[in-house]
Amino acid sequence: MSAERHHSRIGSQIGGYRIDALLGRGGMGEVYRAHDLKLKRDVAIKLLPQDTAADPERHARFEREAQAIAALNHPNIVIIHSVEDADGVLFLTMELVEGHPLDAEIVADGLPLARILALAVPLADAVSAAHQKGITHRDLKPANVMVTPDGRVKVLDFGVAKLVEASDVAPDVTALPTVLTGEGRIVGTAAYMSPEQAEGKPVDHRSDIFSLGVLLYELATGERPFTGDTQLSLLSSILRDTPRAVTDLRPTLPRDLARIIKRCLAKDPEYRYQSAKDLRNELRELRDESESHEPDEVKGDQIAAAPPVKFRTWRKANLIATGLVALVAASVAGAWLWFTPTSAHGPIDSLAILPFVNAGADPDADYLSDGITENLINSLSQLPQLRVVPRSTVFRYKGRDLDFKKIAAELSVRAVLTGRVVQRGDTLNIQTDLVDVTEDAQLWGRQYSRAFADLIPVQEEIVTAVSSRLRLQPNADEQKRLTKRYTENPAAHQLYLKGQFSWARRTAERLQRAAEYFQQAIKQDPGYALAWAGLADAHAIYGFYGAGSPREAVPTAKEAAFRALDIDDTLAEAHSAMGFVKFTFDWDWSAAAYEFKRAIALNPRDGLALQRYAMYLQLTGRPDDALEQGKRALELEPLSSNHNAQMGRLLYQARRYDQAARQLQESLELDPNYVQTYLYLGWVYEQLGKYEEAIAALQKAFDLSGGESETSGALGHAYAVSGKRREAEAFLVTLKERSKQHYIAPFDVALVYAGLGSKSSTLEWLEKAYDDRSTWLTWIKVDPRFDIVRDDPRYRDLLRRMNLSE
Asked: 432: which of 385, 419, 493, 562 fits an S-S bond (Cβ 3.0–4.6 Å)?
């Protein structure tokens, strides 16, 4: 069908459906996004092509596709709504699956093990369900598998499925009658075909198992097991070649995975798994085992042996004990419903957890009170029916007198949770109080006196009790997320809290200290995904705060993010950190977008991920979309100094200088000592020609930051463009001298040269910034201070190497 005909359908009506957009076209039909005018919902519609409607074989296959999908009821298989005929046009309506095809997940060198198995288990389960209904897909490939925004796998397009007599018990699968297939006709996509398909022989359900093996191989290695320059050579490879084991390409993968894939790819169907159910069971067992012990350690080319069975048994026993503790805690919390007052207005849907007070004599224990507060915020934020005020907002009240009614009005919440923490040696005392501000009534309160090693279960008891007292009634899945444990090791947890405490302060020294704490936490528990994610985030922003060269620091961040995702692919923090690495270091824009979107899908309340996604959109030429994401982050955390400053930066980079100035001036009213606000305000004043105001703002940023290189470079540039060349040249000398002792970003030296109008020196130092992977270089395309070099071929070549274009 011509493009004109495709476009002619858009906006037209077929039966009770309005056609909105073409989604795809294949041998079995055209697929459109449509709107059900009666039920007011969006659906997918599949039409039999008009030019083949008269072909009885295609007509029969189309009807069979409807029967095949309608016979299935599985969360990982697309749902069919109806089969309809309108004015001679035969079509079926299906669930509209949003998301991306599986091939968008495939990356060079393969996915982390946890992600491979997170995709493989539901995929094999879906195919198993189809096989039990007597249905063989026969065209399994990445394009026919979608991954929804919440991470669910959906198998599409049973258009060439082989439907045999269906029953509750899977019958023997026999060859499809030749009236539909024709002996010798090849049906399917070449790269994912089984050998029997490639030879045009009759196929059964074991052909799908071969195709699953190809998909697993590609997920694990980033490569296809069979290749060829032409379709004929590709088919020859499928029939004759034995692919390298996945562990040859990735020695860190478990040998069991290599064995499973090898068995799927056996040439002879008799040597493959004889059912997809068996394959699913082995993949599930591998997933469960990989989650139950520490990841393999790699030493050179040797992989350390898996932990002994006794270790896994201990873990299972420990998990059972954990479950009993949670059950007891839930029972205790339930008992409070009988002995404490309840609200007359039903469930409470908004809560502020105010910073717990460090009531002990040791000021160095602030990490503990802050960490408990943050953990409670993160845990209770898992409840979709509860709005929890984020950390960046409530921590503005730290150290202040607490007027609950005033705070509740400022934050638009109905309840507040407060606490006091005292640590004496190995003993921990925590007092908590939950207050319904509207009713002016205490809903719950308790004092805990426990060993410090019991901090993790105490936090679980608090969140369980609070959710009960708010009468939220979380379901089983929400309760599981509410009390999810990332480590069983109290020492590792304590070190993680110290790392988070340092990371939140974001100076060069604090970031280095945070990284050390995260490393120590990982040493205590190598399977601690949150600590790996913290380490990734610390090293990823070294270049922002002058803590070290990105060239040296970011590879550690990338490896840490990979380890975090390998342990727990549902960790939003790890996806956000990985996206930032892809964005500022690899300049892999599509991969960065995927990671940011995945982080936001996993945690829509993650303001940092939204902010980073906004930066990505700004740089890739979508300033309006960037500002929209920035606004979303601000709506989540309206009192966040960081989000308010970053909104000013987005407006500056969109060259909306007057708006940026107003935004940043308002930000200073929230926090008159926030470095980034003064830094960005100085940039804006400079573009408005207000040089004295620019220098004053940048001097303030310089003083507050202790002279970090980013503020030095910006201040030197402002002196230069304002005509104060001597001061600017003095900054150049200072930056170069300091670089002999401390890390100084070459980008900042280039910035001063740009202000002085020296194109040649600017480009020379930008080249050094490229070699260093200077973090700020990522934004050069939207930074007006480098307009001086935009007409130079060397600048355009630099953008090309950063995978950007002017």
From this structure: 419
Task: Kindly indicate the confidence band of residue 719, based on its pLDDT and cuts at 50, 70 and 90.
Answer: very high
Please tell us whether the domain made up of 312-485 is placed in CATH 3.40.50.10610. Answer: yes
CATH class for the domain made up of 3-94 = alpha beta
Q: Structural domain boundaries of the chain?
A: 3-94, 102-176+184-303, 312-485, 707-806
Least Cα distance to 117 among 274, 257, 244, 262 occurs for 257
pLDDT in tens, 739-764: 888 888 999 999 999 999 999 999 99
pTM score over 0.85:
no
Q: Which of 36, 125, 139, 296 is flagged as catalytic?
A: 139
Q: Does the 707-806 domain belong in CATH 1.10.1200?
A: no
* Short-list 427, 459, 457, 430, CA closest to 445: 430
Residue 139 annotated to the active site: yes
Torsion sign, CA atoms 306, 307, 310, 314: negative
pLDDT: is 519 or 199 the higher one? 519
CA dist., res. 29 & res. 36, Å (int)? 20
**Residues ≥6 apart with Cβ < 8 Å to 739:** none
Q: CA-CA distance, 30 to 45, in Å (whole number)?
A: 8
How many CA atoms are closer than 13 Å to the CA of 604, on its beta-carbon side? 7
673-682 tens-digit pLDDT: 889 999 999 9
pLDDT for the residue numbered 313: 32
